[in-house]
């Protein structure tokens, strides 16, 4: 049976799972759950993920949600995935898990809330919230500083000083690239409106 990936490419965690599958040659069927249409709240999707968030997967009869859990599962369940993504070495795995845990309560928390409250809220029928955006920006700035001063220290160019990427790298890079995409989007809008550039 083909792996089913329920995702919306607007979602950074969804993109991480899709990219991981493509990079590792994992065959999958992508099933779009349109967040802008609130399809994640439909009963048929909540039967797959009661938390009503993307991504989620179905592999045979096995259902799983939460992007980091999915990336871990895919690394272990599919033959041919290189060991560097989620090494068999217990100590290396623990270090990767520490980055993934830190990511959701720091970088993801700051980035997602910043983007939501500066750009995306209207797409979901919500008002922009400058106060929430300012708070998120502080978390985001602190997270980016911590990323540079701690998680990227070492000889290698990847997280934890590695010379090859892990599932933590793919997860965090999707988060950071979202900031660049949104910055470009804001710049284009400003150029169209005022003939000025930002970012």
TrEMBL record:
InterPro entries: Glutathione-S-Trfase_C-like, Glutathione-S-Trfase_C_sf, Glutathione_S-Trfase, Glutathione_S-Trfase_N, GST_N_Theta, GSTT1/2/3, Thioredoxin-like_sf. Gene3D superfamilies: 1.20.1050.10, Glutaredoxin. It holds the Pfam family GST_N. Residues 89-199 form the GST C-terminal domain. This is GST N-terminal domain-containing protein. PANTHER family: GLUTATHIONE S-TRANSFERASE T1-RELATED (PTHR44750:SF1). Residues 1-82 form the GST N-terminal domain.
